[in-house]
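Deliverable D5.2: sample structural annotation.
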Amino acid sequence: MTEGLQGIIVAEQGRVRPQEIPVRASRSVLLSPLGTLSSLAEKLQMESVWTSEQLRSDRTAHETERTADAEKRERERHDSHALDQPEDAPKIIVGLKIKVLTSMQEPVNEDSSELRFYKQWLPAEVSEIADGTQKRANKAGNKIKAPVGSCFLVYDDGLTEWTRLREDQFNTMPIGSWRLDLGEMERDAGAASSG
């Protein structure tokens, strides 16, 4: 026998078997529920420093403050042009002047191969809306049909592309989102009214 086992036998020699039958006992005690009309609840209400009207008005004030803070954060998240946009996406028509959120890249400095990536709204005009008869080039350069509803955009820098302007991406922040070019629309409206 090992020394550890011998030590256990020596330690157990003086112990005797218990005479009582073991009884299972719950580890937790069930407390009576604290109802709103119980004497304890009434006592707590009497000792309260605030009345229920004060608590209600404080809660309303706090909710109003939280709503105002959330609206402020939402306004700060968007630039001023985003706030001026209509709530719902406009109908896409040929000649509509828009801005498309595009991923841009440029070197960090002149003699560096490291690139800096950023998002920028680029102005474009809807030149054509596909009805299923238009052709576009795919990545391999082959001519394929442009999907119905996709738009042929002509950017201000001369680049062109077929893309789908989705209603759920109007005035949002993912790449490919779009919004109205409000400045260009104001200039066109001014030119039409003066002409």
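Annotation notes: The CA atoms of residues 154 and 160 lie 5 Å apart. The mean pLDDT is 83.
The annotation will be released with the project's public dataset once the embargo ends.
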